[in-house]
Amino acid sequence: MSDYDLFVIGAGSGGVRAARIAASHGARVAVAEEFRVGGTCVIRGCVPKKLLVYGAHFAEDLNDAAMFGWDVPEKRFDWAVLRDNVAAEVDRLEGAYGQTLSTHKVELIHERATIASPTSVRLASGREVSADKILVATGARPFVPDLPGAEHAITSNEVFGLESLPRRIVIAGGGYIANEFAGIFNEFGSKVTLVNRTDVLLRGYDEQLRDRLVQISLTKGIDFRFNSQFSSIERQADGSLLAKMDGCDDLATDAILFAVGRKPNVDGLGLAEVGVALGERGEIKVDTQSRTSVPSIFAVGDVTDRIQLTPVAIREGHAFADSEFGGKPWTVDYDCVPHAVFSHPPLAGVGMTEGQARNTLGEVKIFTSDFRPMKNVLAGRNERSLYKLVVDGATDEVVGIHMIGPDAPEILQAAAVAVKARLKKADFDRTVALHPSMAEELVLMR
Questions:
Q1: Residues 6+ apart with CB under 8 A from 134
Q2: Which fold has domain 4-142+263-325?
Q3: Longest C-alpha distance within the chain, in Å?
């Protein structure tokens, strides 16, 4: 008899959900975690980053407050206060995740684990345990380019522990992580330069929204260097950094943040030795049931590089546990997964972009609303929001919703239900507007 029915490597969102659900079905489950319980999202990803986003929003809110009658005599930001409060909240959440495992009688092992065979795991202490099934949920890590002086740069992992705010920061990358931190540091008062090796930001998002974000970011004071990349980084005598560049002038700065993608955490796990097939980027190749090329070994979350989003990893872990231990097999539907960028302002989208629809469907109808939110009008802020509906002209189905503006992700979550349910534009038109709100624009486009 095996020591466990299921052994999970990695206590991130996907691994914890799989372990908890499998245990609730009566399985004997253990989870090994070499760092901290909670994974990237809870410890050094979306949760602490969203708290920084909240903190950054006060920079503009305090300025706007004057037009609403509030007297704010002094505006002063203390990075250390926010940093330490965010760290305390992360500690609290880590404890909650550990408590969840304990409540469901999942054994938590604070050691690195590697795969010794298709049905056994070797712990860092040297102990070897057996399991009928092994689930790899080790996530991904920031990619750091191989160039001279790269050790002087930081990644999203180190941002949350900075001793002080940099006066100047150069951010490399064009994806959501780069744009989010560009907005955060800019609102905190740092001089931000975003460097991208192409001339396209946020590839995969709607083109109009991407252009609008660049326009607003430029207005807020963020600089951009397109079609440029680093050749080397040098530490100067005064402690600052000099980035030698290809495609633009060299950049003098106080900090450099690489946000140029993430790579699956597979190094040293013993996957190749037992025959688990990997893809070109090192991702674990799995089928629709999250099963690898070795029948007893499964994988979920970012380590599979399907869609690197926490809610997707959670659903993958849940589906795996229900299917393998609950007698209720199901698979994750990757169609119409909503995405958001918590930039300043945020943008969000679900379904087809206009470009994707025109390349896929015969007839496409586009409805847009380009407006100034009421709050911005009174505050004297010229920043405009943009909402877009992408409609299949043949069926009248709304196949995509995209928006940029205050609270766009909060609004889109509900709107995504309509796209997933394949509602028609006529259904939107029949819905009474909730006035006054920004969300009402979704049902007023004609």
A1: 6, 7, 8, 9, 115, 118, 119, 121, 296, 297, 298
A2: FAD/NAD(P)-binding domain (3.50.50)
A3: 71
Rounded Cα gap, residues 236 and 76, in angstroms: 30
Distance CA 35, CA 30 (A): 16
Radius of gyration of the chain (CA): 24
Domain ranges of the chain: 4-142+263-325, 150-260, 345-443
Amino acid identity for residue 149 in this structure? G
pLDDT in tens, 323-339: 999 999 999 999 999 99
DSSP state letter for 10:
-
In this predicted structure, the answer to whether residue 262 has a pLDDT above a threshold of 90 is: yes
Which residues are known to be catalytic?
435
**Amino acid 398: pLDDT:** 98
Question: CB neighbours of 92 closer than 8 A, spacing ≥ 6?
Answer: none
Helix %, strand %, coil % of the chain (to 5): 35, 25, 40
Q: Using an 8 Å Cβ cutoff, are 6 and 20 in contact?
A: no
Establish how many alpha carbons lie within 13 A of residue 35's alpha carbon, considering only the half-sphere containing its beta carbon.
14
pLDDT tens digits, 353-401: 999 999 999 899 999 999 999 999 999 999 999 999 999 999 999 999 9
Instruction: Look at the domain 345-443 and name its fold.
Output: Enolase-like; domain 1 (3.30.390)
